[in-house]
Known about the structure:
InterPro entries: HIF_prolyl_hydroxylases (IPR051559), Oxoglu/Fe-dep_dioxygenase_dom (IPR005123), Pro_4_hyd_alph (IPR006620), Pro_4_hyd_alph_FE2OG_OXY (IPR044862). It comes from Bowmanella pacifica. One of its GO terms (molecular function) is L-ascorbic acid binding. The model has no long low-confidence stretch (mean pLDDT about 90). α2 crosses α4 (about 85-105). The chain has a single domain (about 15-50, about 75-205), classed as Sandwich (Jelly Rolls). By secondary structure, it is α+β, with helices and mostly antiparallel strands. The chain has four helices and eleven strands; from the N terminus they run ααβαββαββββββββ. The protein has helices at about 5, 15-25, 35-50, 85-105; strands spanning about 30, 55, 75-80, 110-120, 125-130, 140-145, 160, 170, 180-185, 190, 200-205. Fe (ii) ion binds near residues 128, 130 and 189.
Amino acid sequence: MNTLIQSNSELSQHRLDNLADSLADKGYMVMPELLPSQIAESLLLEVSEYGSQHFQPAGIGREQQQQQNQFVRTDEIRWLTGQTEAQQAFLSVMEQLRLGLNRRLFMGLFDYECHFAHYGPGDFYKKHLDAFKGRTNRVLSTVLYLNPGWTTEDGGELLMYEKKQRTPFLKLTPLFGQMVIFLSERFPHEVLAANRHRYSIAGWFRINASIGGAIDPPR
Ligand SMILES: O=C(O)CCC(=O)C(=O)O
Ligand SMILES: [Fe+2]
C-alpha cells in the first residue's frame, strides 16, 4: 500500500460539511490546507523536476477546436495520470471530495481530470470561464497551489469575478498547499503574471454527459 496515501490523508466529515455549505452558500471556497503537507511537497518536487519537454503548451477549447492562443494564456501543462505515488495520493483525496460532495449536495460528480500547470515569469491566463452554461460537463473547478514562500510582491494572483462585474471580489495569492474550489459556470477568473515560477494543479469535476455510450469529452 502506498505510503503517501496512508499518510493521514482522510478528509474529515467536518471539513466536507464546511466545503459543501460554502459551495451551496457562496459557490466557492478557499481551503488553506487541503492535503497533508507531505503530499503537497512530493507534488511540488515532481512538477519542479519536469523539464519543458515534459509539458505541453496549454490550449483553449476542446478537441478539434483546441487551439493555442497566446493572447489568452501562456502557461504550460501536464495531465496527471496517477503515474507517481504523489499523484495517486492527490487523486485519492480528490476522490474523497467527489464522493463527499455528491453525498451532501447531490451534484452527480462523475469524474475528475486535472493537470499540473507551470507559469514562467510573465505568463498569464486572461479572464475566462472554465465552462459555459449547458455546453460542457465541467461543473466544479479546483486549483491547488504549490509555491512555498510566495509573497504578495511575487504577483501571480488569481482574480475571481462575479459575472458582469469589472472589479474582482477575490484576489488570491497562490500559497503553498492552498486550494480554491468554485462552480465552473459561475465565476469568470484570471491569472495575473508573476515574477517567479508558479506551479499548481488545476482540475475539474465533471458530470457524465455521455450519449450513446461515448464518454464526452475525451481529452
Ligand atoms: O492557476 C490558477 O489560479 C487558475 C488556473 C485556471 O483558471 C485554469 O487553469 O483554468
Ligand atoms: Fe480557469
